Each structure stands twice: as C-alpha cells, then as structure tokens.
Amino acid sequence: MKTLLKYFKGFEKETIIAPLFKMLEACFELFVPLVTARIIDIGIKSSDRRYILHQGILLVILGIVGLICSLTAQYFAAKAGMGVGANLRRDLYHHINTLDYEALDRTGTSTLITRITGDINTIQTGINLFLRLFMRAPFLVVGATIMAFFISPKVTMFFVIALALIGMTITIVMKWTMPRYKKVQEFLDQVVLHTSENYSGARVVRAFAREEDEYQEFAKVNDQLFLTQRKAGRVSGLLNPLTYAFANLGIVVIMIASADEVNIGGLGQGEVIALTNYMTQVLLALLIMANLIISVTRAFSSAARVSEVFALKPKMVEGERAVSEAVMEKSEAAVAFDHVSFTYHGQAKAALQDISFQAKRGSTIGVIGGTGSGKTTLVNLIERFYDVDCGQVLVGNTNVKEYTYHSLRALIGLVPQKAVLFTGTIRSNMQWRKPGASDEEIWAALKLAQAKEFVEKKTNQLAERVQAEGKNFSGGQRQRLTIARAFVGNPPVVILDDSASALDFATDKALRQGIKNHSHETTTFLVSQRVSTVRSADQILVLDNGLLVGKGTHEELFSTCQIYREICLSQLSKEEALTS
Ligand SMILES: Nc1ncnc2c1ncn2[C@@H]1O[C@H](COP(=O)(O)OP(=O)(O)OP(=O)(O)O)[C@@H](O)[C@H]1O
C-alpha cells in the first residue's frame, strides 16, 4: 500500500489546497447561523431595517465566498484524484507488460482489466472525496459544537448527547454494512469476469447454443450480487431516518430546554434558531463523514488489489547481451534445445521432458504431435516466454537467458495459434516487427503469406482499416496477415504455431512453397497437427505427452517412429504417406 503513496508526488500543492479551502468554506458556513440569530434578535426585534439589510448582505457575501472556496477545493481535489489515477494507471499498465507469462497465467486477464479500470476509478473517487471532506466534516462537527457552547453552555449538553447518539447509530450501521459492501465488490468482480468472458467468446457461445446456460450462470452471480446489495442496502437505508430522528429529537429537547432561558431573557429567539441550525449542520457533517468512510474503505480495498498486482514480480531475470543477426550468421545451429524440461506453474506433470535437438540455420523444422503434446510450449521456450526448469535453450549458440528480451524477440517472427490483429490499418499491423518497414517489404511479406491478392482487392489496400481484433477479416485472411507480419523485416527465425489451420489445402501448399523459397538464411518452425504441413520439413520433431519420441525426415520417421507412422496413417493412405 505504501508504494501507492508515491503517486501523490507532484500533487502536493493540490493535496494541501483542496482540504484547506474546504475548511475555509466550513468556517464561513459556521458563521451563517450566528448572523441569522443576529438578524432575528437584533434586527427584527428592534425593527432595524438597515441592520437587517447589512446582515443580509453579509449572509450573501458569506455564501459567495463559501462557494468560491468550495469550487477551488473541488477543482484541486479533482485534479489530484485524476492525476494520481492517471499515473497509477500508466504505471500499472507498464508493470503488467513487464510480467512474465507465468504471472499473467496465475492472475488472469479479466482480473487485471478490472484492476486497471474499475479499481483505479474507485481509488480516484476516494482521493477526490477524501481531500475535500476528511478535514471539513470533523471540523464542522467540532466547530458547530463550540459555537453552540458559546451561545449556551447549558443547552450544548443536550446537543452533545444527541451528537453521541447520532455518532453511535452511524458506527453501528457502518460496522454491519462495511463487510457486506466488501462482499458486494467481490460479487461485482465475478459479474465483470463473467460478462467479459461471455462477450469475448460471444461467437462460441452462440455456435454452441449456450446462450441459455450462460444466461443462467450470469443470473446466478447477478442474483448473489443483488441479494448482498439488498441486505447491505436495507440496513444502510436505516442510517438516514435514524440519524434524522435523533437530530430532530435533539432539536425538540433544545427547544424545550431553551424555552425557559428565552423566558428569563438569557437566550434570544434567534440564538435558539442558531442552535437548531448548528444541530442540522452537525448532522449533515456526520452523514457526509459516514459516506466518506465508506468511499475511503472501498478505495483502500481497491488500492490493496492494485498493490497486489504491483507486488507480482517477474521470476525471469532479463539478460544483458544484445543478440544481433551477426551472431546467428556465425552459428551453425540457429536454435538448439539441450536436455530441456519444463513444468507450468502449479502443474504436477511436466509439459516437456528432456528435449534435445538442433535446428540448423536456414532449415525448416516441423513440430508435430497430438493436442496437448507440448508443441506450443516448445516454441514458447525459444522466445523465452517461460524459463526452463532443466537444460538450456540456445539461440545463435547462446543461452536465451543471456539476451535482452527485446534483442532476442527481434530475431524471431512469431505467428501465434490465435490470429490476433490490432486496431489500425493493414500497414500499421504489418509494421509491428519492423517499425517503419517500407510498403515494398510489406507487399513482399504479403505475397509470401498468400495475402497479397485479397489485400490488393481492398479499396484502400495497405491503408485499409483493421477493426478491433481484426473482426472485419475472415479467419483465413487474419491468419495470412499474421503470417505476413512475422516475415516483415526477414527475421532469422520464424515460428508458425499451427497458424495455417484456417487455410484451404491449395493456399496452405502455396504458403509452404513460398516459405521454402523465401530465404536460405531463415530457420522456420512449422508447428502443426497436419502431416501435409510438416512432411517436407528438413527435420520433423515428434512430440507425445511432452516427450520427443522422434526426430528426422518424413521418410525416416515413417519407417522408424511408431507414433509418427500412426499420425500419418490417420490422415493419409499408406501410398500418399510414401509418395512425396
Ligand atoms: N499456461 C498454461 N498453464 C498450465 N498448463 C498449461 C498451460 N499451457 C499449456 N499447458 C499444459 O501443457 C501441456 C502442453 O500444452 P501445449 O499448449 O504446449 O500443447 P500443444 O501440443 O501445443 O497442443 P495443441 O495442439 O492443442 O495446441 C498441456 O497438457 C496443457 O494442458
């Protein structure tokens, strides 16, 4: 939590000015009942119109100055709240980007989104309210009591009793409702999680006709939220009537107690009105304080949730060496695995066990295996998305741990399983690997990825807009664009992780031919469950349950590796498998 305090740096002025001006406003407010009393006791009593006018003007001035103070406080409090919120959001976003995959896997994307949006908004509102009210409300309570004391110490006694009763009511109600409001926050999290999961997977939900089930699930969480909210709301709904009842009772007692004083001339009628006004001021201040405490508590729990994310530290330590393409040119093996084993966090079983192979520079490596056999995990280790538990992954003859992330990943063009594009244009998406890549380079990559033809048909060609997640392109088009993106700038290593699954057979074949002809310097990993995709690779790695059960060419493996043979025969006839 302490780490969040540093975000007030740069807003010291606002943090002081906002409460100060709110206090000034409260000071002016405290004089109002006193002036009103004087108008009644002096002006009206002696029918002194001039006096009434003067005091009336004083009231207006008090009101205007109070308003100016209030607006100033509002401005500075909002500035501090928004400023702290913006800086916090920026740093949290940056911090999340530095986290390794393991930390991201553990936390979950939805939670991270809620924390960077909802939680920071709550903190922002909390700061704004706190700066405006944390001094004003107690100041008004104490100030109004002192003012009342000056008018009549005897009547102030009843005033204090009513105050204690109101304070007690607020404390009891808050003690009961606060934990419920915390629960409300938790259920709200679940509603957000459910909604975001459901909407991001809307097409799948519809395709599987799961609308009703998803609706039921949502309704369940939503009902829990509603019931908890209602429970808390019912009790907190008592807050206002109960406190007003005590305040009004106090006013009645003050009136009765003051009556005798007025009769014997110890107290003016206006002073009695001033006392009741102070009572109302105190009541409002206490109610505001109760709301403030609720908002600040919420802000604290949000701050704790944000701090939790800041506390997540990447386990991986970034290396310092800058790997360059020259390093690759010198080494015979572009990528090598040396007895690599890896287990995902919290998993009992290793995803990869004792994997060793060498990918020669300029060669094509096919990676094949059933679902969950470890293919994606293997290529993720080349990019160092995770650190291996045993052994080492070498790129350009050097352990990937020694390189800076940026220089390592700049050498690799990755086409992930899920074709992800970003809002912008085709050109801006194509320039992700190589900022400022020329149109010529982009068209060459599009041609290789079999995407040139359909991009040429677009009205704006490279300037064609890409909507969020590339929704205005078909699945196959998106895949081809992500393949092209990986080839822009000719990286020495390209990884295609099952990224041609949405392509028809002819396009897939043309793509493989294009990759083969592309560059003799590019080492390409083709991850697939399709034999047709990997069969012409220079070396095929066969994975089964995290084990490397075969490596060699298609022909070698077909005759020596039982699992590869089974995969081939499940997709091709024996003749097809034997003829290239
Ligand atoms: N982020 C993760 N956290 C925990 N376990 C994981 C994670 N990703 C994958 N696994 C597990 O690791 C194993 C290998 O998964 P991987 O994604 O590498 O398989 P794959 O061969 O690429 O499968 P597919 O062809 O279906 O994509 C699987 O058992 C999977 O459940």
From TrEMBL:
Keywords: ATP-binding, Membrane, Nucleotide-binding, Transmembrane, Transmembrane helix. Residues 16-298 form the ABC transmembrane type-1 domain. It is a multi-pass membrane protein. SMART domains: AAA. Residues 335-570 form the ABC transporter domain. The chain crosses the membrane at residues 52-73, 133-151, 157-176, 238-258, 278-297. One of its GO terms (molecular function) is ATP binding. Pfam families: ABC_membrane (PF00664), ABC_tran (PF00005). It is found in: Cell membrane. This is ABC transporter ATP-binding protein/permease.
